[in-house]
Design brief:
Elements (H helix, E strand, L loop, with lengths): L4 E5 L5 H8 L2 H4 L12 H12 L5 E7 L5 E8 L5 E8 L9 H16 L4 E7 L3 H9 L3 E6 L2 E7 H5 L8
Parallel strand pairs: 4-5
Antiparallel strand pairs: 1-2, 2-3, 3-4, 5-7, 6-7
This protein binds coenzyme A.
Coenzyme A binds next to strand 4, helix 4 and helix 5.
């Protein structure tokens, strides 16, 4: 199977798909999002409208090249011109374990360091989220501390330069 991907800018219309991911607790087990009730298309769309207005974030949809299917989100938040926070979710578990998370991470890191010229990208990951930690270590992130069952990990531009790939957004 071909699991080549590309990233495109996230749009309001993507709420039609992503609201379904919201209602699967398995997807959010290791994240800060805690499902407390049914998420409808309207709720997701309202949330997305708000975050898409923010100027300190860059949000992208992860899509399959073979059929343009939208399967996940990847974003940089709290962008201050020098650094940003990183987030990744593949919303449909059918696509887990196929190298897609690694590919999407490589693309957005090249974008962050080469296009946006950031000097540092940080993330927080649950210490039990072994698949995510494996990706982040492979992409050069290093441990920068632990708090409340979470690892804080950081990647500098200099370190990324030794570990980068080509990218297309
Ligand atoms: C975490 C997540 C992004 C991983 O994406 P993915 O596309 O399934 O991951 P990949 O297939 O690219 O790579 C996973 C890597 O983790 C490794 N891995 C998986 N489970 C593992 C485990 N229990 N222990 C150690 N390594 C593990 C895989 O072997 C693979 O590494 P490899 O290519 O060297 O073999 C995806 O499962 C997801 O979206 N989960 C829900 C949201 C989430 O947790 N996001 C991260 C928040 S920080």
């Amino acid at each position: 199977m071909n699991f080549e991907i590309y990233l495109r800018v996230l749009t309001l219309a993507d709420a039609r798909v992503s609201y379904k991911w919201r209602n699967n607790p398995k997807v959010w087990k290791y994240t800060n999002f805690h499902l407390s009730g049914q998420i409808t298309h309207k709720i997701e769309e309202r949330w997305l409208r708000d975050v898409l207005k923010k100027t300190d974030q860059k949000r992208f949809a992860i899509c399959l090249k073979k059929d343009d299917r939208y399967i996940g989100n990847i974003q940089l938040t709290n962008i201050d011109g020098f650094s940003a926070d990183f987030h990744l979710v593949i919303g449909d578990p059918e696509y887990w374990g196929k190298g897609i998370g690694q590919k999407a991470t490589a693309i957005i890191l090249d974008f962050a360091f080469f296009e946006m010229c950031l000097t540092e990208v940080s993330l927080t990951v649950d210490t039990d989220n072994k698949a995510a930690i494996a990706i982040y270590k492979k992409k050069g992130f290093v441990d920068a501390g632990q708090q409340n069952h979470h690892n804080v990990m950081r990647l500098t531009r200099t370190r990324h330069l030794t570990n980068h790939s080509n990218y297309v957004i």
